[in-house]
Structure formats: C-alpha cells, structure tokens
Prior knowledge:
The chain has three helices and eight strands, in the order ββαββαββββα. It has 174 residues and is α+β, with helices and mostly antiparallel strands. A six-stranded antiparallel barrel has the order 1-4-5-8-7-6. The protein has a two-stranded antiparallel ribbon with strand order 2-3. β6 and β7 (129-136) form a beta hairpin.
Amino acid sequence: VYYDVALVQLSSPVTNVEPAAMDLDNVASSYPDKAYRLRVMGFGIVDFYVPFDDLNVLSDDDFWGSHAVSSERLMHAMMHYYPNDKCHDYWMSKAGYDVSDDMMCTLRPGVSSCDGDSGAPIWDPQLKIIVGVTSWGAPYCQTAAPSVGARVGYGGPEWIVEVVCGNESVGLAK
Length: 174
C-alpha cells in the first residue's frame, strides 16, 4: 500500500463508466480555508448495536467486529476541507499522530467518515476531480474530530502511472 491507495487490474476494459479525473496539480494543497466543500464517500459503518446479552463489550476488536453495521450501498456526505496545520495540531494534541503534507483532512460537525470508508475517494465537486483517498480518523467515528485522507496530488499520480504502465513512457495528461 502506498499513500493508502490500492490499484486493481481488471481482466477486461470497463466501457460504460467515465473515469474520474485525479488531482494532478495538487490543488488540494492550496484550498483557501475550511469553508471549501468536499464530498466523501464509502461503504463504512453506519450504525452500532450491542446485543442485550453482550452489554459488557470490552475489546475494541470485538466491538468493531461484531457490533458495527456497514452500509450495503455507497454513502456520501459533504464535508469541509480542514487545513493541515490545524489538523496536525489536533491529532498531535489528542493522540500524538502526525498529519504530514501527503495527507489532507475533512471536518463537519455531526458527519464523519468511518471504518470501512478507507480507500474511498474524496471528491472536489467544484473542480470535478478526486483530491484524496479516505484513510483514518477518530475511533468510533467521532464527528468532532477531523478525518484524514491521502492527498492524491502529492506523489500519487506518478506512482499510479508507474505501477499501471510499468516501464512504458506515458505522460500524465492534464
């Protein structure tokens, strides 16, 4: 895994879907402020339940493994871009986690990406490009904490072309 991105090679071409454009110019690094809206999506956890006979859940692994309900359909939500310096300060103070330049953050009170959303795109609806890939966030999908993703435009496009095209000389179209 590189930048939390996995590539899948299909056995035959897909012809009825238009490919999504990627952030080749790293525009996500220059968003003006946290008011900029991005669409996050995925098949992550949408509900939790604890069976009546199992109220003493102590292990996080047990809780997530048997008490979380993932979506059966693709979910999406609009969230705000959250500046990296603020996101870095938040995660360093709360958990000692670094948010580096190859990451980006989203935040919207009451909304969060969650376990199972990892690997899903972060979409810029204004520019119509994928700017990130959901990676990690707060335990139990806490909506007051910023969600963190891999920034696609930070080294990702070149790596994807290298992996997909091998040693062939293929340029990145803009």
